């Protein structure tokens, strides 16, 4: 108890929710409140020990530790594992024990406890530090692969990045604990004292861990926020892993500007990796993921959650997919080599941790020839990406040989009873095993000899766990045994004896068994140490294999679903022929493909049409095609030309956040505000039914003003679905706005959805017809129709239709007229800029160029602003 309390005392301050699993022989015991807690959480029987002051106690068998660990960590507990040190039988007094590891959600490395197709990252967040670090710093570490990454992001992008990384645990300075809780998106928030986040100390830790003189090579020396967060991560890992520091790869500084910005709402709305349906439904990832290995699935997840702004990398992927789509034999060859591969990335990382299990090493041994096959298949490809993987995949010969020589063909699951190392690996082991293996011969020979010496025909040499080896004779014969027989046990019908020879042999045999187990342990540890020299190469090979797997999966989907290669163009805009929604097209039989043209001069499409007509599906299909193209995939369309995109922003669906104190309308406006702040002329924006959460005129006015802001000032590419039919008038006053509608026909009072997107506004609204379809009682439908007729009539007679859209800015009475003048100028300038951008430099005549220049000068002259 004294020992237990001492170990525990040092921990509770930092880990208030820790449970100590305290090794005692074949069990991990818990005491006091830990025992009560584990009884509550896992239903482990609660007992007590000690007469004067009973101590609550609950224990789990040590063999089953993993399954309990998983459940405790899932319940948000930190679990401290205390092991016995040295040999319990030779120690006097309490066995020495030591805390060997603290397991938290972000520091799990056991393959069985990790989701196989996603990473469980540990994250550290450092808030802005003033001028030198005006943004948030994010550092993430995936312990099971060693991936160590850093990024600085603006406040409004923070939640989106956290949603992308989907960490299991977030370390934050204590001072921002509450703020972190609000954006943690399900991860455990672990506050640390603020001094854990110290830039100088962080830099020192990084230099020390990676044995570097300077951090300049990683471009983080001047980033105090990142140094602070990285230091916190390293400190936390060494504190929780205690004895074995994991393999951590060099810190990679990711520029958030390299990737298409996707905020948390967009990731959710587009159902990239999580379904919006409460019970879970298909997602983009689950639809396109046909990977043969878990590593491949994780890679593919990374690609689609982090599409790229620059076209080079996705283009290379398109090319590789193209090669695979056209060569099914090559696909089969690659697939055959990939299929049997174990999770090399995680095995490599467990080698570094020293916790790799014998079966995992054997899996690695068997996988190496497969890697070689994969490498050969990749070398025969023509696309750059596949070809480049070949040399990286070639497995190190020396590692193959070492593992072949060291391990038994099928080693035991654990080291506990040996049977892991091959005979040929150690002479001593071979001799010890031979002693054991020939025990049978010795015993049969002894039995025959003793029968003859004593003249007792039914004498037998036997063994049981309590007595060990003995010679058994019936009681009737017992007085015939020789003088050197020593009595061990007397039972009803038999007497049991040992002889000095048998005892001597037994001692030797037991010693040999113990020694051989001990020796195997030492040899195994040595083997793991020697393997750690290859961790780096194995990790690289696993990444290359994962990429091939992901490409193969994309190719297979592209071929099966008849997707096409998109064109990533430098020309601004999005032009898609025959767009389909990648998830919906799999779910329904006759998907109606639609076109979409968002180009300079036509930047905002107002989409009208009945509910259920397919507006949301259409908008999402466009966003998903753009996203897939920039992630490197082919796309569900006849053709697609995607220009530069910096962000995809969406405001879809009404969900309220009552717990967070926000009403439906408030959520809607907060999201709209975020979009208006973030969007640029290179953003793709989806707006679904904005403004419907308030009174009609309020909502309509807001929707109109937002659409105008997006089209005219921000000039983003926007799909704007609405039930405010009045918004279709916007196109008359805004040059950038066009109308499209989803087609439906009404026959005998019922609507039929055609799901076709056509130019122009919808001709009528179908709300009542859809309500009828949904089964609203006839009486209510009749009454609604009559009210509608009345309203329409009244508005026609009084002419009170609000004319919000006749001229730009009309209705914005509090604005100074000057602003409107500037506005028109700005618009003219922007239009000119677009025109210039759209010019083809190769066919541009000097006359054209001069004409544009003069126009610019004219504009500048007439301008009022400095
Ligand atoms: N292009 C299409 N081809 C075939 N079916 C489609 C197509 N688009 C949508 N659908 C079907 O119509 C259903 C309704 O589509 P969607 O949710 O996009 O309608 P909506 O116009 O956004 O409706 P609301 O205005 O009520 O939100 C989808 O669940 C899908 O099954």
UniProtKB/TrEMBL annotation:
Q: Where does ATP bind?
A: 609-616
Q: Superkingdom of the source? A: Bacteria
Q: Which UniProt keywords apply?
A: ATP-binding, DNA damage, DNA repair, DNA-binding, Nucleotide-binding
Q: State the SMART domains in the record.
A: MUTSac (SM00534), MUTSd (SM00533)
Output the InterPro entries linked to this UniProt entry.
DNA_mismatch_repair_MutS, DNA_mismatch_repair_MutS-lik_N, DNA_mismatch_repair_MutS/MSH, DNA_mismatch_repair_MutS_C, DNA_mismatch_repair_MutS_clamp, DNA_mismatch_repair_MutS_core, DNA_mismatch_repair_MutS_N, DNA_mismatch_repair_MutS_sf
Q: Where is this region: Disordered?
A: 791-827
A single Pfam family, by name? MutS_V
Q: Where is the DNA mismatch repair proteins mutS family domain?
A: 683-699
Composition-biased stretches (Acidic residues): 815-825
Which NCBIfam families does the protein's record reference? mutS1, PRK05399.1
The family note in this entry says: Belongs to the DNA mismatch repair MutS family.
- Give the protein's biological function: This protein is involved in the repair of mismatches in DNA. It is possible that it carries out the mismatch recognition step. This protein has a weak ATPase activity.
* UniProt cross-references to HAMAP family, sorted A to Z: MutS
PANTHER family from the UniProt entry: DNA MISMATCH REPAIR PROTEIN MSH1, MITOCHONDRIAL, DNA MISMATCH REPAIR PROTEIN MUTS FAMILY MEMBER
Annotated protein name in UniProt: DNA mismatch repair protein MutS
